[in-house]
Amino acid sequence: MATSSDIRKGLCIRYNNDIYKIIEFLHVKPGKGPAFVRTKMKSVTSGKILDNTFSAGHKIDDVRVETHKFQYLYSEGDMYHFMNTEDYSQIRLMREILDTPELMKEGEVVTVLINTEDGSPLSVDMPAHVVLEVTSTEPGVKGNTATNATKPAIVETGAEINVPLFINEGDKIRIDTEKGQYQERMKE
Q: Cross-referenced SMART domains, in alphabetical order (predicted)?
């Protein structure tokens, strides 16, 4: 049993007869009244996002999890297939429990949180950033670089990302997986 002071990003808790993963939290200490923790939680079964506030010292039922490295193999409709990099066993996961499936390319190694009580996979954590190749984008207008102007670009996984005007087709770019935003162009 944990308390609201133990809340952190990625913590899995049992709440309303379901298991939720904390995706955002904020400890608030107002000048008047008791402190509380404002959270944004994602259900690991349905993918539904819930906003909730826990008062300071509130008891929460945390779920013990193990992390394992899995390699993304392929997708089949809404099912995504992964292989454990240690024992080569395979699992299938629904699209709803993945945070940013549109940024995963085949062969990508991700971290899967597994419930220690029943061995069921709870969620998939992507690496902090991925490097993807731009497959199509409009050519940039020469000289229009004074502002932070962006244009849409399609990357090799099919995701659409806003990129600066100097990015061309064939460029490899680093993308922040948490926000789904362009970070930098990779040098050859």
A: EFP (SM01185), Elong-fact-P_C (SM00841)
